[in-house]
TrEMBL record:
It holds the Pfam family MFS_2. The keyword Acetylation does not apply. GO terms for cellular component: plasma membrane. Keywords: Membrane, Transmembrane, Transmembrane helix. Signal peptide: none annotated. It comes from the Bacteria. The chain crosses the membrane at residues 41-63, 92-113, 119-141, 161-181, 193-213, 234-254, 274-297, 309-327, 339-358, 379-406, 418-441. It comes from Clostridium magnum DSM 2767. This is Inner membrane symporter YicJ. One of its GO terms (molecular function) is symporter activity. The gene is yicJ.
């Protein structure tokens, strides 16, 4: 039975059920059993377990993430031109998740070799392959909302559900990873991290399948066969996309600085690595609250930039203050934990809002350039995020190594100062930058409705 134009428009603008939103969110819940595990623990695993020099670790992170960042837009353009009975983007999730999870385990495996060079090469090769295969899952996944519905508030709700799922997974990891490492490893951190990676990868697999089964691509857009050079033209003068790019670069700096250094911060600077579990739990609990609140708050603003702009600026100020708190006193530590919880709420609300803005920029691109490039635009924005992470993570490794970082020993004053600055001051400045640039984002709800009307006329 054929579908009339009116029925097609109604189908594309449908408001998804809560079950469908949970189904989509399960994909990012699964993603973070790899992404967050690697972001929070791999740098520490390399330096303190695999005993690879910090400078070399920083270089590995830079090369791998830059390769990944360059690969993302290429993959996005390929995903845009994929055509199967399951849709454009869903098949990528189904078929790429298994090799990705296997590589996730391999990344937390210490090569049984006395040669530091052999261990280092193995770690680098596994991580490089992981980030590339992870993109085969995450880039199509991130582009999917543009094909699930055209309704703007529903997309923001999808982003809220997605990021809530992601941060719930991260909250679980923050509370369980070190406990699993200690329980299974029995004092052997290498063995402990290996089995932790196996356990969490096994949990992720059925979640990917659930995501695939519960989503359906209903927004039909023409598949345009354009060359890569042609796709790049949609970035020229594309102000909304470039604003998100800058904002995501800043967020990448924030994520890299806080994620890579947090273990070092509590193990060496604070002197109690068990507080890592407490502090991480507060931050990710805050993020869950922040992301979940987006569905309610987004309906009360006329421009989606408002929520992340305010959230990032407030959180940036708090993190700059945290750099100067007397963390080694009871009052200072309690304030630090309290501010961490607040920045978790603001950060969760802010990043969920940013992801909810990505589909709108892909439609702005289609409206202005008459070319569908959801996968490419999504990948280019992700490129910005990973570029920020790559540069920041590399600098952290280089700085710690050059200042004399020695794994599993007391650190000198310069290393301790660098750890504190990276953990707090750098994060605060990055968040401020992300918030300020969003002031110039102009796609409000009225503009978005007009764009959709014009796109429907063309189609």
């Amino acid at each position: 039975m054929s579908v009339t134009g009116t029925e097609k428009i109604n189908l594309e603008n449908t408001k998804l059920s809560r079950f469908q939103k949970i189904g989509y969110a399960s994909g990012d819940f699964a993603n973070n059993f790899s992404w967050s595990l690697v972001s929070a623990y791999l740098m520490y695993f390399w330096t303190d377990v695999a005993l690879i020099p910090a400078i070399l670790c920083g270089t590995f992170m830079l090369v791998s993430k830059l390769c990944d960042a360059v690969f993302d837009p290429v993959l996005g353009a390929i995903a845009d031109r994929t055509k199967t009975k399951w849709g454009r983007y869903r098949p990528w999730i189904l078929f790429a998740c298994v090799p990705m999870l296997l590589l996730n385990i391999m990344c937390f495996t210490v090569l049984p070799s006395q040669s530091a060079n052999a261990r280092a090469f193995y770690c680098f090769a596994c991580y490089l392959l992981l980030v590339l295969v992870y993109s085969c899952v995450n880039i199509p996944y991130s582009a999917m909302p543009a094909t699930l519905t055209r309704d703007g508030d529903t997309r923001s709700s999808l982003s809220s559900y997605r990021m809530t799922g992601a941060f719930i997974a991260t909250l679980i990891l923050s509370q369980l990873v070190l406990r699993v490492v200690q329980w299974v490893g029995g004092g052997n951190e290498g063995k402990g991290f290996f089995w932790a990676a196996i356990i969490f990868s096994c949990v992720a697999l059925p979640l990917y399948i659930f995501c695939f089964k519960t989503t359906k691509e209903v927004v039909e857009v023409p598949i345009e066969k354009v060359n890569y050079k042609g796709v790049l033209k949609v970035l020229k003068g594309n102000t909304p996309v470039m604003i998100l790019v800058i904002s995501f670069i800043c967020w990448g700096f924030y994520e890299a600085a806080g994620g890579a250094v947090r273990m070092y911060y509590f193990k060496y600077y604070v002197g109690n690595d068990q507080l890592f579990i407490v502090n991480s739990g507060l931050m990710f609990l805050g993020r869950v609250i922040g992301t979940f609140s987006l569905s309610y708050l987004v309906t009360r603003v006329t421009n989606k930039r408002t929520l992340p702009m305010i959230s990032f600026i407030i959180c940036g100020i708090l993190m700059i203050i945290m750099n100067y708190l007397p963390i080694h006193t009871a009052m200072g530590l309690n304030l630090y934990h309290g501010f961490t919880f607040l920045t978790g709420i603001g950060g969760g609300l802010g990043i969920a809002s940013l992801f909810g803005m990505v589909p709108d920029t892909t439609e702005y691109t289609q409206y202005k350039y008459h070319q569908h490039a959801a996968g490419f635009v999504s990948a280019f924005i992700t490129f910005a995020f990973k570029f920020g992470m790559a540069i920041c993570t590399a600098i952290i490794g280089w700085v710690l190594g050059s200042l004399g970082y020695i794994a599993n020993y007391g650190q000198n004053l310069n290393v301790m100062t660098a750890i504190n600055v990276c953990m707090n001051l750098v994060c605060g400045i990055a968040l401020l930058g992300s918030g300020v640039i969003l002031y110039f984002y102009t796609i409000d709800k009225k503009t978005h409705v007009h764009m959709i009307e014009e796109i429907n006329k063309i189609q």
